[in-house]
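Good morning,

Attaching, inline, the backbone tokens for the sequence recovery test we're adding to the shared suite. The designed sequence is right after.
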């Protein structure tokens, strides 16, 4: 008598996501696209960070953006105003993007006209960490007002990240308990080879050059 084979729901979902991820990566390699998954909590400055990156690079690289948010197209409209192709994904109640959503978005984009693709994930420090989007690099932003202990509080997302960027560094003088060394130290305890940058996008001094130079030299990275 044949036994009924049962496949747990989570196993089926994971397998489907793996298939989507492989297809996404194949498309990226075929079109020479390097993809960056930008993650961080709400208000950490993800959209402003992407905007300033675009302004620095749009004369050197062909850039596109996938905007993930629970609702509205506000961030996508900001990006579109810079003259960059942008695709909006509204997840509703879902607290992260997944490979299926990215695959659907890519099917509607001109991949032959993209060098660098930035995915702005939904603002969250828990859900996005466990969902592979086929990206080359996972970038986590940590803003100065959030404090220096985010890596300790959310170790899983830092363990999965390739790069950590401290944002809003222009506010350091107003947060004496925050030190760059503390946050980077915590991050490296969790992932010793994590790449670190500090940026300031407002105030008297704009600090972004090291991040931009790293992007210009970034190579494909099948995680």
């Amino acid at each position: 008598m044949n036994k009924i084979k049962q496949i747990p729901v989570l196993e089926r979902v994971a397998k489907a996501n793996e298939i989507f991820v492989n297809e996404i990566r194949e498309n990226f390699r075929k079109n020479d696209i390097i993809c960056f998954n930008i993650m961080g909590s709400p208000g950490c400055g993800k959209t402003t960070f992407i905007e300033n990156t675009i302004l620095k690079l749009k004369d050197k690289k062909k850039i596109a953006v996938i905007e993930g948010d629970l609702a509205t197209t506000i961030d996508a409209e900001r990006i579109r105003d810079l003259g960059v192709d942008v695709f909006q994904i509204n997840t509703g109640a879902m607290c992260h993007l997944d490979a299926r959503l990215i695959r659907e978005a890519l099917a509607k984009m001109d991949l032959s006209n993209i060098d660098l693709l930035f995915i702005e994930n939904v603002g969250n420090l828990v859900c996005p960490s466990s969902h592979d989007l086929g990206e080359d690099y996972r970038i986590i932003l940590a803003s100065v007002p959030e404090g220096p202990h985010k890596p300790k509080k959310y170790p899983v997302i830092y363990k999965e990240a390739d790069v950590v960027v401290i944002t809003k560094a222009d506010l350091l003088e107003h947060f004496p308990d925050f030190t760059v060394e503390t946050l980077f130290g915590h991050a490296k305890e969790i992932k010793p080879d994590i790449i670190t940058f500090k940026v300031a996008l407002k105030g008297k001094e704009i600090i972004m050059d090291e991040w931009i130079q790293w992007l210009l030299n970034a190579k494909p990275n099948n995680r």
